[in-house]
Amino acid sequence: MNDEFSKKSTVDEIRRRFDGDVERFSNLETGQSSTVDAPLAMRLITQAALAATRPIGRILDVGCGAGNNTLKLLEGAENPDCDLLDLSQNMLERAARRVSEKTTGRVRVIHSDFRDAALDEGVYDVVVAAAVFHHLRDDGDWLAAFQKLYAVVRPGGGVWITDFISHENARVQEMMWNRYGEYLAQLGGE
User: Fold this and answer.
1) Out of 38, 78, 124, 178, which residue is the most buried by the measure of CB atoms under 10 Å away?
2) 39: cis peptide before it, omega within 30°?
3) What is the pLDDT of residues 126-146, one digit of tens each?
4) pTM of the predicted model, to two decimals?
């Protein structure tokens, strides 16, 4: 694996970083601005989830940040219950406020690492996770995460994931890494 992708922040480092970055992650036009195609990915994933799953009665947003993906889902779903899960209490507070303004469904916040969260099984019509799972540490984490996703989604429901990935082809990896670096430089310099 490429060294750039093998360096992992601790859960506390991730929590602190997101606790201090609520404003940037609250913009629906840019989405998670630290990813190159966040607005496009958010639109495609939420549109696909809406098209594939009817009715949507309950949503789980894993690593919800400021709630952008759930807000996009609410543009086409009629008042579902929304469970917002994140490490950052600051993000959860912002997400809960924003989501509560857009649905009469129940909004529940879950302040936890996804791996440790106590979640109901077989109840979610849509599970979204954007730029979350690249934080998983090893094969055991990946296996446990996908077993948990399988357990919480209801039959006929869907799991929709967008994330950073490494590419097997070295030239494609270099192209995408350079593209990502250029994008980050536009946000805040070298």
Assistant:
1) 124
2) no
3) 999 988 887 787 889 889 999
4) 0.75
